[in-house]
Amino acid sequence: MSLIIVKFVGDKIMNIMNIIEKRDYIHNHLSQADEQIIDELFEKLYSVFEKETVLKSKLTSRAKKSEENISSGKFFSREEIERRTNHIGR
After folding, report:
1. What are the C-alpha distances in Å from 38 to residues 16, 32, 34, 68?
2. Within its chain, how far is the Cα of 53 from the centroid?
3. What is the Rg, in whole angstroms, of the alpha carbon atoms belonging to the chain?
4. Nearest to 78 by CA among 86, 88, 67
5. Tally of helices (H runs) and strands (E runs) in the chain
6. How far is 88 from 50, CA to CA, in rounded Å?
7. pLDDT tens by residue, 37-80
8. How far apart are CA 29 and CA 2, in angstroms?
């Protein structure tokens, strides 16, 4: 087994580590983190994933509504859209 010693300065480690290495580092050091670090990490992750869930829900709802409108004939033809928007910007 060979040992590689690398000295990092400042945030250089963040630019060198790939996503798998970062996940491994977090996983390996999570048990050593104090409550403040855990709370900060939790808030960040929760915020990101909650936003994704809300966005997915909104987009799904919009897609279903659009499909209903198309099925019931509630849409504009290309010609109608062009006619309605011809005067915009003039």
Report:
1. 24, 10, 6, 44
2. 10
3. 25
4. 86
5. 4, 0
6. 38
7. 999 999 999 998 888 888 888 999 999 999 999 999 888 889 98
8. 23
64/70 Cα distance (integer angstroms)? 10
Tokens of 39: 């709370």
0.90 exceeded by the pTM?
Answer: no
Amino acid letter, residue 47: S
Taking every pair of C-alpha atoms in the chain, what is the biggest distance, in angstroms?
73
Q: Which residue, 52, 53, 29, is CA-closest to 41?
A: 29
Instruction: Please name the residues in contact with 38: beta carbons below 8 A apart, sequence gap of 6 or more.
Output: 30
DSSP summary character for residue 31? G
- Centre a 10 Å sphere on the Cβ of residue 33 and count the other Cβ atoms it contains: 13
**Site of tokens 């929760």:** 46
Place of tokens 């062009």: 82
Token digits of residue 40? 């900060």
